[in-house]
Each structure stands twice: as structure tokens, then as C-alpha cells.
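::Encoded backbone::
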Amino acid sequence: MPAAPSDRPHILLIISDDHGYADLSSRGSQDARTPHLDRLAASGMSFDSAYVTAPICSPSRAGLIAGAHQQRWGGHWFSDASFPPARQPVLPELLRAGGYRTGYFGKVHYGFEQPGDRACPEQHGFDSSFYGMTSTSAGRLHYLHHSRESRERLGDAFHAVHGVNPMFEDGREVDCEQHLTTAFADRAIEFMGPAPESDGADGTATEDPFFCMVAFNAVHNFAWQLPEDELAARALPKHEDFDPDTDRYIDWYDGAISPNLENGRAYYLAQLEIMDREIGRMLDHLEATGRREDTLVVYLTDNGGSACNYGNNAPLHGTKYSLFEGGVRVPLMVSWPGMVRPGSRSDALVSSMDLLPTFLAAAGIEHPDPVQIDGRPLQEVLDGTGGGHELMHFDTGFQWAVRDRLWKLRWVDEEDTTYRDRLLKNEHTDIGAGLTLVPIDRDLDESPEADVAAEHPEVVSALLEAHQAWSARMRELASA
């Protein structure tokens, strides 16, 4: 029998890694095949103006799990990113305290954490977990190999940057030689469990709600790391991993990504299609166990698509690492049967920070200190009565941006070009330079030619004042 409907839904949160904004067949992609993400979109609401809090994974993921700007605790870029401090309660802690059973399956990368730190899932509210720690491996997880044998085979010089360290299960090292996208989905399905047994006089079944967070490393770079059967099915050649004879890892890395990787787009699309298939398996499991009608499902990616990994962000300008729209505007889908109109769309300004208050509101849980969060519940947007945020702020230290419903003001340091030069050289992406203003509601062009700052000094002044006030507030909170 299906589980009885509840006013406390199960929650399945799916996060991908570097998924290009345009790489969905539901958005008209000519080569990306995503039938199960399309199915998710058709069952709920797709957001056209959804944002994450940073154009890279670590600070973005920290902001999401806290429902707050990571600048509150000093996080901006890889160099200072960290998991929210203990004084900042995070999503799984709040849901578990409210009676949810909690599971985490996927990539962990909030900063420079080590095994046993608060950033590890079992240390911040997850009952069950299976994860790879990428802070110890240059931000990467190998798609195929995670074992003591692989670590020993590569040796001390390269196993860390290559990302083949063993996985962790509830904080303990475990070997895994399975394709990680499938492994994460397997563990999530196992956690969600079989259909609950009947325990009511009327023959219905009830159970405690769950929060299942699946953080795929797909479709991050090194996408050629595919199982043999997947390569054969796509007629793709096997591509060797890191050459130990290369003097410097960064030299090999630069040669292994765009524009130097033959079949690069095809490898990327293969990883995307596998992830889509595994998402389909999770949705099928919810349906087969009678839970789908009582489950809030959310999908998004952690930052914009990566140019070095053949992601496509059209029609947005720019890519991962930048504060162009292509770096921080992401695909977001929310499906909640009976609560969200199927096949609906929204252009409201929403943020990954909104997920924490949205989930708490859905679960009937109050945040112990609401001033600690910057997100807003999505329920008003979902039912059509609210318009989302008025302002969106971003800051990586060497670049910042602020946008309202009409305009976007963006700044990149022109005096110290260290970061810009490094990103141009190693990631093949240009983050721009100087102060620019664009009418973002009318045109997504953010090129230098689109800059209208000189024609609208009053808009520049107003947005600059708003951003300076926000920045001062963040600095005050970080120093408290």
C-alpha cells in the first residue's frame, strides 16, 4: 500500500557539479539528452533566474547548506572557503532535530576540511552517509577508482590530486571501484528504503519523513573516465589518466581539458546522460514505493557550466569562475505533487539559499534564529503570490556583482590581475575587468559593448551603495 499523505514531505535534494545552463533537452539543447530531468521539470516548476551564491563549488555549497551568504563567516573563494561554523546551524541538523532521518551521498568540498571535521556529513546532522572528500584531492573525485589499491598504485606524488583516495561511509574509509554516479544513486535508493509496511487500521502505511541529499560529482571535468561498456555504447575511445612522466600536474591538466581534449563534448554529454539516468532511477524508486506523491524533489547545480569541460551556458554570458550570469545562474527545478503546478515556469529571482527555509517551512520546522539566514521560502513563488528577492549579491574578493530585477552592476579588479590571468591561462575563461552596468532584464549580453554605466550614473550609484552596505554587514558578521 502507498504511504499515507503527510503534511511533512520526504525531501530529495539533488545537486550536480558544473552542469551547463543550456544542457537540458527541455531547454532546447540539440545534443544533450536529459529525459528524466525533463520529466522532473514537467512535474513541477523550472526557474529561469535561479542563482547560487558563488561561481565555484566550495563557497556555493556552504551557502546552500546554511541558507545564508557564506561571506557571513568569511568565505569568498577557494582560498578562504569553509563549512559554516558551529554557531550557524545547517540544513540536516535542523531537519534531523525536527524528526527527519537524514542521508548524504556524494561529493564533499566546502574548503580545506579533513576527515572528522565538522564539514564531514556525519559531523553535521546526517544519520547515513557515503561520500568522497575532494578537499584532499584538488577538488576532484575520480569517476571510477577510489581505493587503497589505487592510492598505492599512483603513489604519494599523484594520488591526492588525481582524486582516487578511498570513499567514506559514515566517516570510515571504504573502497569503491564502481562508477560514482551509479554508486551515489545506489546508496540513496538504499537509504530511502523499500515501501513502508502497513501499520494502520485502514491498511495504509506511515513512516518518518526522510531528507536525502545526493551531491553528484558529475559532470565535473575528467569526464572521459567512463566504464568500458559506456565507452563502447558511444563509440568513444579510452583516454588515459594522468601521465606520471609529466613534470607538473597543472601542465597535464591544462592539456587534458578544452580545447585540447578530443571528443571532449561527447565525454561530457555521456556523464550527463548517465547522471540523468540515475536521477530517473531515484524517481522510479519513489514511484515504486508509493512515495512520489509525498516527496519534494529539487534539482540544481553548484555553479555555472565550465568552459574547460565543454559545458554550454547559452544564452548566458560567461562560465564558471566568473560573476557573469553563466557563472552563477543555474538550472533549478522544484517538483512537489499537489503543491506545485506541473510544467510551470518562473522568472523570479531565487537563490540556492532559499532551499533551507523552503524545506523547513514544508516540514513545519522553525529556525532557532531566523536572523542567521538570508534565504526566503520559495512557497510564495511556487504558488504565484511572491516575486522572490529584490537584490542578489555576489563577492569572491577580486570580483563582485549585485543585481536587481532590472540591472546588474559588476566589478573585477583591474589593478591586481592575478586571478584573472590565472583563470585565463589554466581554465580558459575570461572574467572581464573593471566596473560595468547592463540592463539584465532586457538583454543577457554582458560584453564590454553592453556596458551602459556612463549613461546611467544614478543606477550605478544606487546599486553601489546597496552593495557596499551589504558588504559592510557581511564583514561585521564575519568578525563577530
Remarks:
- The domain at 10-389 is CATH 3.40.720.10 (Alkaline Phosphatase, subunit A).
- The chain has 14 helices and 15 strands.
- Confidence is low (pLDDT under 50) at residues 1-5.
- The two ends are 53 Å apart (CA to CA).
